[in-house]
Amino acid sequence: MLSMALDRFLAIRKPLLYHQENSRNRLYISIFLSFFFGIFYVAFANYNPDNSLVKSCSIGGTVTLMFISAYAIFSFIMAVCILAAYSSSVAYLVKHSTIVDQRFKAALTRQRKVFASISLILLTYAVFWCLPLFAGIIVLVTNPNPILLGYMSMAIGLGSGLNSCVGIFIYLAKHPEIKKYFLQLFPSFKKLVEHEESQAVIGKAQLEVIPLLEINKDVQGPEKSV
């Protein structure tokens, strides 16, 4: 998510130079950091200065309080950085909207279309992930009750799953190429999607026809009664 937010920030800030820069290096760095932090946190979750054996058959019981605090701090920093990058992108969009250079405006318009789908992704991230996370941090700082921490952990886990699921449908709705391969992978959804698309086309056509009918009535004038 942080890589996505930073990528959109760079695209909005320098739309003319964005495609000229080497984006492959950014992709490799993002993949490396994702795997690195994943492996690091799996190892860190099992680290415990206390050498006593774990007797609870539960993941929550084996995770140390140090890991919970470190994970909360790290997640909070990541969320703040993501929201800061997104807010900066919005500020640059507003600032650059008054530029009259046609080449710059064309590049910015293209990036704005991509930014729309990314905005939905970041919105779901803020609702389903950031809100439960911030609530959990408040509980951890003010009243570290194990029961409340358990409920907050459940909310964070549920929000994380919802964020991942909703993101898939946003990509399917905004990117036709992803929808194409999805329908090839799951043919049973093809008829349903085709039906929804046909209904949307019919509804759009009706909305376009109704104003034309109203214009024709105004041009012809009211019918005279015999």
UniProtKB/TrEMBL annotation:
Principal cellular location given in the protein's record: membrane
Superkingdom of origin: Eukaryota
UniProt name for this protein: G-protein coupled receptors family 1 profile domain-containing protein
Residue spans crossing the bilayer: 27-47, 67-94, 114-141, 147-173
Pfam family, one: 7TM_GPCR_Srsx
SUPFAM superfamilies on file: Family A G protein-coupled receptor-like
The keyword Transmembrane helix appears for this protein: yes
Residues annotated as domain G-protein coupled receptors family 1 profile: 1-171
